[in-house]
Design goal:
Layout: E1 4-15, E2 18-25, E3 28-34, H1 36-39, E4 48-58, E5 61-67, H2 70-80, H3 87-96, H4 99-108, H5 111-114, H6 122-140, H7 155-167, H8 172-184, H9 193-208
Length: about 210
Amino acid sequence: MIGWLQGTVLDPWQQATRCGLLLNCQGVGYDVQVSQRLWARLPAPGAPLTLSVHHTIREDGSILYGFESRQERDLFRELVAVNGVGPQMAMALLGALELEALVKAIVEGDQRLLSQAPGVGKRTAERLSLELREKLQERYAVAIRPADPLPGADHTVAHELRSALLAMGYDQVEIQSALRAVAAQGLDPSAETERWLGDCLRWLSRSAA
Protein backbone atom coordinates (compact mmCIF):
# COMPACT_ATOMS: atom_id res chain seq x y z
CA MET A 1 0.00 0.00 0.00
CA ILE A 2 1.25 3.49 -0.83
CA GLY A 3 1.17 5.86 2.16
CA TRP A 4 3.54 8.68 1.18
CA LEU A 5 4.91 10.20 -2.01
CA GLN A 6 7.64 12.73 -2.72
CA GLY A 7 8.24 14.09 -6.19
CA THR A 8 7.63 17.01 -8.53
CA VAL A 9 4.37 18.34 -9.92
CA LEU A 10 3.82 17.37 -13.57
CA ASP A 11 0.25 18.06 -14.57
CA PRO A 12 -2.58 19.42 -12.37
CA TRP A 13 -6.02 18.36 -13.62
CA GLN A 14 -9.74 18.86 -13.01
CA GLN A 15 -12.60 16.58 -13.98
CA ALA A 16 -16.04 17.92 -12.98
CA THR A 17 -15.89 18.27 -9.16
CA ARG A 18 -12.71 16.20 -8.83
CA CYS A 19 -9.20 17.55 -9.07
CA GLY A 20 -5.70 16.23 -8.72
CA LEU A 21 -2.28 16.05 -10.29
CA LEU A 22 0.29 13.80 -11.86
CA LEU A 23 3.26 13.51 -9.49
CA ASN A 24 6.64 12.51 -10.90
CA CYS A 25 8.45 10.32 -8.39
CA GLN A 26 11.86 9.35 -9.80
CA GLY A 27 10.51 8.82 -13.29
CA VAL A 28 7.20 7.20 -12.27
CA GLY A 29 4.04 9.28 -12.64
CA TYR A 30 1.43 8.81 -9.92
CA ASP A 31 -2.08 10.12 -10.55
CA VAL A 32 -3.28 11.55 -7.22
CA GLN A 33 -6.64 13.09 -6.37
CA VAL A 34 -6.49 16.00 -3.91
CA SER A 35 -9.01 18.35 -2.29
CA GLN A 36 -10.10 21.54 -4.02
CA ARG A 37 -8.41 23.58 -1.29
CA LEU A 38 -5.06 21.84 -1.80
CA TRP A 39 -5.38 21.90 -5.60
CA ALA A 40 -5.91 25.68 -5.56
CA ARG A 41 -2.52 26.21 -3.95
CA LEU A 42 -0.44 23.59 -5.70
CA PRO A 43 3.04 24.79 -6.68
CA ALA A 44 3.87 25.30 -10.37
CA PRO A 45 4.74 22.29 -12.56
CA GLY A 46 8.29 21.20 -11.86
CA ALA A 47 8.16 22.24 -8.20
CA PRO A 48 8.74 19.65 -5.43
CA LEU A 49 5.75 18.29 -3.52
CA THR A 50 5.32 15.81 -0.68
CA LEU A 51 1.97 14.15 0.05
CA SER A 52 0.58 11.77 2.63
CA VAL A 53 -1.47 9.24 0.70
CA HIS A 54 -4.51 7.04 1.21
CA HIS A 55 -4.47 4.15 -1.27
CA THR A 56 -7.83 2.61 -2.17
CA ILE A 57 -7.90 -0.67 -4.14
CA ARG A 58 -11.07 -1.63 -6.00
CA GLU A 59 -12.04 -4.34 -8.48
CA ASP A 60 -11.72 -1.88 -11.38
CA GLY A 61 -8.40 -0.39 -10.26
CA SER A 62 -6.90 1.72 -7.50
CA ILE A 63 -7.11 5.38 -6.49
CA LEU A 64 -4.59 7.54 -4.64
CA TYR A 65 -5.86 10.39 -2.47
CA GLY A 66 -3.23 12.96 -1.48
CA PHE A 67 -3.07 15.18 1.61
CA GLU A 68 -0.84 17.92 2.99
CA SER A 69 -0.26 16.09 6.28
CA ARG A 70 -0.65 12.74 7.99
CA GLN A 71 -3.27 14.29 10.29
CA GLU A 72 -5.40 15.31 7.32
CA ARG A 73 -5.09 11.82 5.83
CA ASP A 74 -6.09 10.26 9.15
CA LEU A 75 -9.14 12.51 9.35
CA PHE A 76 -10.10 11.45 5.81
CA ARG A 77 -10.01 7.83 7.00
CA GLU A 78 -12.27 8.67 9.95
CA LEU A 79 -14.71 10.45 7.64
CA VAL A 80 -15.07 7.59 5.14
CA ALA A 81 -15.70 5.17 8.01
CA VAL A 82 -18.97 7.00 8.73
CA ASN A 83 -22.01 5.38 7.13
CA GLY A 84 -23.04 7.30 4.02
CA VAL A 85 -19.78 9.23 3.67
CA GLY A 86 -17.72 8.12 0.68
CA PRO A 87 -14.29 9.30 -0.48
CA GLN A 88 -15.68 12.11 -2.65
CA MET A 89 -17.76 13.56 0.17
CA ALA A 90 -14.78 13.31 2.51
CA MET A 91 -12.63 15.15 -0.04
CA ALA A 92 -15.36 17.78 -0.38
CA LEU A 93 -15.34 18.34 3.40
CA LEU A 94 -11.56 18.66 3.45
CA GLY A 95 -11.75 21.00 0.49
CA ALA A 96 -14.32 23.26 2.13
CA LEU A 97 -12.66 23.65 5.54
CA GLU A 98 -9.16 23.70 6.98
CA LEU A 99 -8.33 20.73 9.21
CA GLU A 100 -8.78 22.52 12.54
CA ALA A 101 -12.01 24.20 11.42
CA LEU A 102 -13.44 20.89 10.17
CA VAL A 103 -12.61 19.07 13.40
CA LYS A 104 -14.20 21.84 15.45
CA ALA A 105 -17.32 21.89 13.27
CA ILE A 106 -17.79 18.14 13.78
CA VAL A 107 -17.13 18.30 17.52
CA GLU A 108 -19.49 21.24 17.98
CA GLY A 109 -22.14 19.86 15.61
CA ASP A 110 -21.99 22.98 13.42
CA GLN A 111 -24.32 21.88 10.64
CA ARG A 112 -24.08 25.23 8.87
CA LEU A 113 -20.33 24.94 8.40
CA LEU A 114 -20.39 21.25 7.52
CA SER A 115 -23.11 21.83 4.93
CA GLN A 116 -20.82 24.20 3.04
CA ALA A 117 -19.22 21.12 1.52
CA PRO A 118 -20.94 19.97 -1.71
CA GLY A 119 -23.23 17.00 -1.11
CA VAL A 120 -23.32 17.34 2.69
CA GLY A 121 -26.85 17.87 3.99
CA LYS A 122 -28.32 18.24 7.46
CA ARG A 123 -28.66 14.50 8.11
CA THR A 124 -25.10 13.76 7.04
CA ALA A 125 -23.80 16.62 9.18
CA GLU A 126 -25.72 15.26 12.17
CA ARG A 127 -24.35 11.76 11.56
CA LEU A 128 -20.77 13.03 11.33
CA SER A 129 -21.08 14.82 14.64
CA LEU A 130 -22.86 11.92 16.33
CA GLU A 131 -20.33 9.28 15.25
CA LEU A 132 -17.10 11.26 15.41
CA ARG A 133 -17.54 13.89 18.13
CA GLU A 134 -16.01 11.95 21.04
CA LYS A 135 -13.26 10.34 18.98
CA LEU A 136 -12.10 13.61 17.42
CA GLN A 137 -12.41 15.56 20.66
CA GLU A 138 -10.14 13.04 22.35
CA ARG A 139 -7.65 12.79 19.48
CA TYR A 140 -7.34 16.49 18.76
CA ALA A 141 -8.14 17.77 22.27
CA VAL A 142 -10.66 20.20 20.80
CA ALA A 143 -12.57 22.13 23.44
CA ILE A 144 -16.11 23.29 22.80
CA ARG A 145 -15.15 26.64 24.28
CA PRO A 146 -11.54 27.43 23.31
CA ALA A 147 -9.34 28.63 26.14
CA ASP A 148 -5.84 30.00 26.42
CA PRO A 149 -3.65 26.89 26.85
CA LEU A 150 -1.01 28.96 28.63
CA PRO A 151 -2.93 31.08 31.17
CA GLY A 152 -0.59 33.42 32.96
CA ALA A 153 2.32 32.70 30.65
CA ASP A 154 4.39 35.45 29.09
CA HIS A 155 3.17 36.20 25.55
CA THR A 156 6.75 35.95 24.28
CA VAL A 157 7.02 32.39 25.62
CA ALA A 158 3.76 31.38 23.95
CA HIS A 159 4.83 32.94 20.64
CA GLU A 160 8.30 31.36 20.71
CA LEU A 161 6.80 27.96 21.57
CA ARG A 162 4.29 28.00 18.72
CA SER A 163 6.91 29.26 16.26
CA ALA A 164 9.35 26.51 17.25
CA LEU A 165 6.75 23.74 16.88
CA LEU A 166 5.53 25.10 13.53
CA ALA A 167 9.13 25.15 12.29
CA MET A 168 9.44 21.49 13.26
CA GLY A 169 6.55 20.60 10.97
CA TYR A 170 3.69 20.31 13.47
CA ASP A 171 0.37 21.84 12.47
CA GLN A 172 -1.91 24.09 14.51
CA VAL A 173 -4.17 21.23 15.67
CA GLU A 174 -1.21 19.21 16.97
CA ILE A 175 0.29 22.25 18.68
CA GLN A 176 -2.98 23.22 20.33
CA SER A 177 -3.47 19.64 21.53
CA ALA A 178 0.05 19.46 22.96
CA LEU A 179 -0.25 22.81 24.74
CA ARG A 180 -3.53 21.83 26.37
CA ALA A 181 -2.21 18.40 27.37
CA VAL A 182 0.98 19.77 28.92
CA ALA A 183 -0.92 22.55 30.69
CA ALA A 184 -3.32 19.93 32.11
CA GLN A 185 -0.34 18.02 33.50
CA GLY A 186 0.38 21.00 35.73
CA LEU A 187 3.43 22.61 34.18
CA ASP A 188 4.02 26.07 35.66
CA PRO A 189 2.83 28.67 33.10
CA SER A 190 5.86 30.78 33.97
CA ALA A 191 8.29 27.99 33.02
CA GLU A 192 10.85 28.81 30.34
CA THR A 193 10.19 28.12 26.67
CA GLU A 194 12.70 25.22 26.63
CA ARG A 195 10.77 23.40 29.38
CA TRP A 196 7.44 23.83 27.59
CA LEU A 197 9.00 22.77 24.30
CA GLY A 198 10.52 19.61 25.78
CA ASP A 199 7.25 18.54 27.44
CA CYS A 200 5.26 19.28 24.27
CA LEU A 201 7.67 17.24 22.11
CA ARG A 202 7.46 14.29 24.51
CA TRP A 203 3.65 14.42 24.41
CA LEU A 204 3.60 14.69 20.61
CA SER A 205 6.00 11.75 20.33
CA ARG A 206 3.78 9.56 22.51
CA SER A 207 0.59 10.56 20.70
CA ALA A 208 2.11 9.66 17.33
CA ALA A 209 3.26 6.23 18.50
